[in-house]
Amino acid sequence: MRKKIVAGNWKMNLTLAQGEQLVNDIVSAGIKLAEGQEVVIAPPFPYLARVKQLIRNYPGIYLAAQNCAGEKSGAFTGEVSAEMLASVGVDYVILGHSERREYFSETNAQLAKKIDLALANGIKPIFCCGEPLEIRKAETQNEFVARQLEESLYHLDAAALKNIVIAYEPIWAIGTGLTASAQQAQDMHAFIRSRIAEKFGREAALGITILYGGSAKPSNAGELFASADVDGGLIGGASLVAADFAAIIKSL
Predict the structure, then answer these.
(1) Annotated catalytic, 189?
(2) Which residue from 20, 28, 156, 240 has the fewest beta carbons nearer than 10 Å?
């Protein structure tokens, strides 16, 4: 049975005190996780060690970083390596988020290197993929996402793939006023799973967790998560509000 996950990406938000309060509010919200369900919290780099302390006594809640460097170590001022993340107890790392691709020009090839470094340090990548509006309008979203998968993941073997989580981000539905329907999410998730099956086999495809990263909120999370190939969500803005994030988790 593949894992069901709700991951909260804080992005560049909150002070340390605000982050501590948010975590405390989440863990005290009466969330009961079933077998195979996980919660992942991804604060900014400076808060990682502190958040790890706050969640250490809560089984099923894990720590993620929002990025890692594409080099092992060295003179890369301002970068944070996968080895550093592992040393403070990071369990997951978000790689290839649409904002990293757009604002920092991260390429599929660079992400393949980051994935390898994360895996080498025992950290599970949450690999983000998804298409912008012009690609969706041209109805070439499948080809676009397939290329992202091929260029960043296809160098792995099936054993390594077991430690990968995929997050589908319909970029055109984030902050644009447009909304991806549950059917559109399901269609793309099913397509991604079919591509994994073609490359890595049916067993690998059935086992991989695929999250939805398109502005999920309490009002639509239940419908999205009910889709056959949607295994949870990568949550942005709603993860900054404890009541909303807890409600989304409970939608699993």
Answers:
(1) no
(2) 28
pLDDT < 50 stretches in the chain: none
Among 38, 99, 131, 169, the one annotated catalytic: 169
**172 assigned ligand-binding residue:** no
CATH number at residue 167: 3.20.20.70
Beta-bridge mates of residue 167? 128, 211
- Residue 126's beta-bridge partner residues? 94, 165
Catalytic residue among 97, 106, 131, 189: 97
CA-to-CA dists, residue 69 to 9, 113, 234, angstroms = 18, 9, 21
- What is the per-residue pLDDT for 168? 97
Question: In sequence order, which ranges of 201-240 are alpha helices (DSSP H)?
Answer: 202-207, 218-225
Domain that holds residue 8: 4-250
What 190-194 contacts at long range (C-beta under 8 Å, 24+ apart), as own/partner pairs, is 190/228, 190/229, 191/142, 191/145, 191/146, 192/129, 192/145, 192/149, 192/166, 192/168, 192/229, 193/229
Q: What is the pLDDT, as a whole number, of residue 177?
A: 66
